[in-house]
Amino acid sequence: MTLPRQRIAILGGGPGGYEAALVAAQLGADVTVVDSDGLGGACVLTDCVPSKSLIETSNAMTLLNRSADLGIATGGLATVNAARLYERITDLARAQSRDITDRVNAEGIRVIRDHGRLAGPGTIKTSQETIKADAILIATGAMPRVLPGAEPDGDRILTWRQLYDLTEVPRDLIVVGSGVTGAEFACAYQALGSRVTLVSSRDRVLPQEDEDAANLIEDVFKRSGMHVLGHSRAQSVHRDTDGVTVTLDGGQAIKGSHCLMTVGMIPRTESIGCEEHGVKTDKNGFIEVDRVSRTSVPGVYAAGDCTGVLMLASVAAMQGRIAMWHTLGEAVHPIRLGHVAATIFTNPEIATVGVSQRAVDAGEVAARTLKQPLATNPRAKMAGFRDGFVKLFTSPGTGVILGGVVVAPRASELILAVSVAMEQRLTAEDLAQTFAVYPSLSGSVTEAARKLMEFTPGT
Ligand SMILES: Cc1cc2nc3c(=O)[nH]c(=O)nc-3n(C[C@H](O)[C@H](O)[C@H](O)COP(=O)(O)OP(=O)(O)OC[C@H]3O[C@@H](n4cnc5c(N)ncnc54)[C@H](O)[C@@H]3O)c2cc1C
Fold this sequence. Notes:
By secondary structure, the protein is α/β, with parallel strands linked by helices.
């Protein structure tokens, strides 16, 4: 006798939703995804993928504009072809969404392009149909928070999702908010030729991040000519005839051609039936989940930005997969948020994994710390940069790697060595005895590990 196929219904086709759908299909389930905007979600269509594509261009600009130091004559400053830049970004995002759609179709997953909502136990409703399922996954994502008095008009006052409709690179861009998104766009547009003012309500940019890394980036920003305003909270943003005025808490007014608002995200959970059907949310509307993505209602799971748990594509995808493994009876490990590797795509990038300096300084974790500057790394010298470092944390006594911070071009790639070391509980000695290529930036990872090796005198 064959058991009936489990029916899975997924609301939202971003990384939280489509990655879950792929796992469920692999396990033989009958899967339906309801998505309103296109597979890949905001991640692929408006947020992660477009921003990283823009940053690739800005990094190329930085390189071109420093090329004289490397012995290349370009005949002046490189400039941006804005139409081509934005066209490339939107084409790339759409192509990525198509690739995901092809993959999902090939697995026999049914996709309904519509808004959906919870409509009772095991039920999702769209405008056209009712879908019955044995388990439901909500993965509806999040959207930009709007500050009252600073409502985006899509022309001069913008969310990051509206940038790619511009026909020009803003001449004077005011970025409100100096978290990850604000820092990334401020850095990119400064490199693309905008005059950027970064408005930060805190004493420094990237207030949640490793302090050494944040200070270094702020210094790089200022040296590039960016105007960084600390302790400044934007009260309102108004449209003028040919630009914008941002008024700060103290009454100071700043003028620019455009203003980019990066003041956080709110979950897309407002009208999807959570409240009516007992799915608990917190005071900000994020769905409460445990470490295997279960909500307060049996058979209803949630994943990704709508849960507010580390708002990263990799985390959304893992939460979605875990939900499917759990509901379809596979062995499953609860999500380990302490092992998530993340990157801030400034130039240089900041990549982190594991223990943080803040936890060490607060006495929450006992760790030895070593910071190895990149300025002495031969490969860094050859490439002509000196801003960056590798920082490692090890457990005192055992030398086990607890985490690290890498600030470097392509730190997003270099951090993998630290992630693997941490995941596999390798020691500083294990890492130090690993061959790194000479010359390479990863040589600084093994060098930091060498310096952290603990020797017992007399042995
Ligand atoms: C500017 C920016 C850059 C980022 N860069 C990175 C990065 O470099 N690396 C990284 O890991 N993360 C990055 N992120 C975060 C990443 O984009 C999110 O964590 C990720 O998109 C979360 O995926 P998700 O599946 O939860 O939601 P989403 O990607 O938002 O997808 C949700 C989907 O659900 C659909 N939906 C919503 N409501 C309904 C409904 N009622 N019915 C049907 N469909 C619905 C939406 O249309 C959407 O398609 C970035 C975020 C921003 C803002």
